[in-house]
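note to self — DONT lose this again. spent like an hour looking for the file last time. sequence + predicted structure for the chain T wanted, 145 res
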Amino acid sequence: MKALIQRVKSASVTVNGDVVGDINNGLLALVGVEKRDSETEADKLLHKLLHYRVFSDADGKMNHNLQQADGGLLLVSQFTLVADTRKGLRPSFSSAAPPGEGERLFNYLVSQAHAAWPKVETGQFGADMQVALVNDGPVTFLLES
């Protein structure tokens, strides 16, 4: 399981003209689920999402995590994140989890996130989503479980 995280001043997800998730200060996490993933990988990824130190402390150093920064977490499913781009000019999605399993594990991640942190928003799995953000820094990291 992978997540491309971006520290944001704000982020939102719109589906069919309706905002389905939005946060202010926090993390936007684009999440990709691979065939080999299970609840164990989802739990590891959630731990990293909540505890990865990407927010500045009083000295301007990245020493605070999402919880210390009291930030929001916007989880957005994105199967293209797990594409194999090593060969050719067209991505291969052979390593991505089948849609049903990807949705199940993404929903598991979301439910665990809601249980662990009150400021969680999501996109809509499988939908054509428009994601807007104001990247803070910019600060972007690829996390893997």
